[in-house]
Design a protein that fits this description.
The chain is of the alpha/beta class and 303 residues long. It has a domain at 3-168 and 200-226 and 277-290: Rossmann fold. It contains 11 helices and 12 strands. It has a 7-stranded parallel sheet with strand order 3-2-1-4-5-6-11, sandwiched between helices. Strand 2, helix 2 (35-40) and strand 3 form a beta-alpha-beta unit. Helix 3 (79-102) packs parallel to helix 4 and helix 7 (233-243) crosses helix 11. The protein is globular, with a radius of gyration of 19 Å. It binds NADP nicotinamide-adenine-dinucleotide phosphate. NADP nicotinamide-adenine-dinucleotide phosphate is lined by residues 8, 10-14, 32-34, 49, 68-73, 84, 88, 92, 113, 115, 165, 167-168, 174.
Length: 303
């Protein structure tokens, strides 16, 4: 039985991993700021995401520590939210780095979430780990400082892996429900001019990649965690319409997205930035994707 610790494991991605690893018979511990859950669920351990505490003993002898902590970026980027988006990632990563360096038997592997949004808005060509262009602006700065905080920790007995994760398509959270609703209500056309790329990954491949990294002990460093065939927003929406047997979808121009984003407390960047990111290293290292094409991923998730 493997000992798996997931910091920030109470959210969308954490629940996917927790369910999978429990079904596989592994021992899973979740680090959460939620004191009530940590009192009621024996495998949930309280921490505050920034300071040391009794939680650090949960890392002793772990096979893997997976850090997913971070305030959701699906909010308005005002000063308060921006500060929390930074601190929830930097403080949690720093607290884990410090805890690892103080462990008697540190985790064998530390996987930290990062984001594929670190790359520049791209309509010209794909971004791989080695040839990609790093972007600029608030979200990119969050990603760079998050990665820098992770890289700052020297952990000689703990292998370190950063996952630059693309938009995860999953059954119980993320973008699936809002996109399905748009299509259902006849608004499933292109968003903006629809030419922007969307890099995506099926939840089963996120799990598969983490297992692949656990098994293949020479793997370390940065991995673009995205399916091999990103496609344009208008093609993504077309794939949703086809999978849901809905023949038409009104497009949403940029100005309407901007009004809608204010009304539902989000930012248009989340749909308008062109994320053209490819998993070069996973390909080179022989990971075989279960879902390469978005049509089969959507069909599977709608079943
Ligand atoms: N979902 C995606 O498509 C996607 C794509 C790329 C990157 N990512 C990154 O992957 C990570 C997990 O994503 P997710 O979709 O699972 O996010 P999520 O559902 O929002 O879960 C993130 C978890 O982080 C913890 N958290 C929130 N604010 C925190 C704070 N101030 N300090 C410490 N912990 C805090 C929360 O756990 P508690 O409340 O229990 O403490 C929460 O359950 C995030 O860092 C996200 O940026 C996600």
């Amino acid at each position: 039985m493997k000992k798996i610790v997931i910091a920030g494991g109470s959210g969308f991605l954490g629940r996917i991993l927790e369910n999978h690893f429990i079904m596989a018979g592994e021992q899973v511990t979740i680090l959460t700021r939620d004191r009530i859950s940590s009192r009621n669920k024996p495998s949930w351990v309280a921490w505050d995401g920034k300071n040391g505490g009794t939680w650090v003993t949960a890392l002793e002898g772990a096979d893997v520590l997976i850090n997913l902590s971070g305030k959701s970026v699906d909010c308005r980027y005002n000063a308060k939210n921006k500060a929390e988006i930074y601190s929830s990632r930097l403080d949690a990563t720093g607290a884990l780095g410090k805890a690892i360096t103080n462990c008697k038997t540190p985790p064998k592997l530390w996987i930290n979430a990062a984001s594929a949004t670190i790359y520049a808005h791209s309509l010209q060509g794909p971004n791989s780990e080695s040839t990609g262009t790093i972007g600029s602006g608030f979200s990119v700065d969050v990603c760079q400082r998050w990665e820098a905080e992770f890289n700052r920790w020297d952990t000689p007995d703990t292998r370190k892996v950063l996952l630059r994760i693309a938009i995860v398509l999953g059954r119980n959270g993320g973008v699936m429900l809002p996109l399905k609703n748009l299509v259902r209500f006849g608004l499933g056309g292109a968003q903006g001019d629809g030419t922007q790329y969307m890099s995506w990954i099926h939840e089963d491949d996120l799990v598969g990649i983490i297992e692949y990294i656990m098994e293949n002990q020479h793997l370390k460093g940065v991995f673009n965690t995205t399916a091999p065939f990103p496609l344009r927003n208008k093609e993504v929406m077309q794939a949703f319409r086809a999978s849901m047997n809905i023949g038409f979808g009104l497009p949403t121009p940029k100005w309407a997205l901007e009004i809608g984003a204010v009304l539902i407390n989000t930012e248009t960047e989340l749909v308008l930035k062109s994320r053209w990111v490819v998993p070069q290293r996973l390909h080179d290292e022989g990971y075989r994707f279960k879902y390469c094409h978005i049509e089969e991923a959507i069909r599977n998730l709608l079943e």
